[in-house]
Amino acid sequence: GANDYVNKPFSNNEIVIRTNSNLELIDLFDTIRNLSNKDFLTGSYNRRYFFESGQAIFDKALRDQRDLVVAMIDIDNFKNINDTYGHDVGDIAIKEIKTLLDKHLRSSDLVARFGGEEYCILLERITLEDAQALFEKIRAAFEANTIDAHGTTIAYTISIGVYYGLCEDLEHMIKRSDEALYTSKENGRNQVTLLQKP
After folding, report:
1. What does pTM read for this prediction?
2. Could you write out the three-class secondary structure of 91-129?
3. Distances from the Cα of 5 to the Cα of 1, 25, 26, angstroms
4. CA 141/CA 104 separation, integer angstroms
5. Which of the following is catalytic: 117, 124, 168, 171?
6. CA 45 to mean position of chain CA atoms
7. SS3 of 179, please?
8. How many Cβ atoms from other residues are within 10 Å of residue 10's Cβ?
9. Is residue 117 among the annotated active site residues?
10. Distance between CA atoms of residues 79 and 86, nearest Å
11. What are the distances in angstroms from CA 113 to CA 50, 77, 94, 193, 196?
């Protein structure tokens, strides 16, 4: 993994300069990696990173025949927030999703912003009962939460669609959780709908 060398004899000054140069290069690589993997607005992982990392998790679960959880989260009536308060307030509401999810999820859980106000979550090593309790807790946390947007206090709710099980591929699991999310929206919003394998 070496990318530089120093000829003998060398001065202490040369060592310091070359070391600092390589440390700056490492920081630059980290910055580029974060820019390609993370959403600019929220700092959440993006859709591309979700599929790359999620595929490895899915493949391992498939080998072990171990159930996974895929959940889709979406802000209820988000267009009304943008239309009433403006897009900058809408951005604050989207950022709040990451803040609350970080409080309730494990550091090992995969969370990504899929676009707009929609987030996707992939969980492993969790029972059906614990998954139900977790997402109900997250839903209730949003219902009780308020955000301060330029002196205006705003409350909003989310709908959640959850799929528990193991499909033939990760995209089908996402599709099933999306169907569950649609059911939550159709049935009045601010609720969790859970689908599971037959």
Report:
1. 0.83
2. HHHHHHHHHHHHHHCCCCCEEEEEECCEEEEEEECCCHH
3. 12, 15, 16
4. 9
5. 117
6. 6
7. helix
8. 11
9. yes
10. 10
11. 9, 18, 9, 20, 23
Tell me the β-bridge partners of 153: 148
Helix axes 87-104, 128-144, angle to 10 degrees: 140
SS3 52: helix
Element of type H or E holding 33: helix 12-37
Query: Measured between alpha carbons, how far is 182 from 160 in angstroms, rounded to an integer?
Result: 9
Minimal CA–CA distance to 164: which of 61, 76, 75?
61
Q: Please give the single-letter amino acid code of residue 82.
A: N
**Residue-by-residue DSSP string for 60-92:** HHHHHT--EEEEEEEETTHHHHHHHH-HHHHHH
Segment 114-161, tens digit of pLDDT: 988 999 999 999 999 999 999 999 999 999 999 987 788 999 999 999
Task: Give 38: exposed, middle or buried? Use CB within 10 Å, 0-12, 13-18, 19+.
Answer: middle
| Residue 132 burial class via C-beta count within 10 angstroms: exposed 0-12, middle 13-18, buried 19 and up | middle
Tens digits of per-residue pLDDT, 22-56? Answer: 788 777 776 666 667 888 899 999 999 999 999 99
Tokens of 59: 């493949």
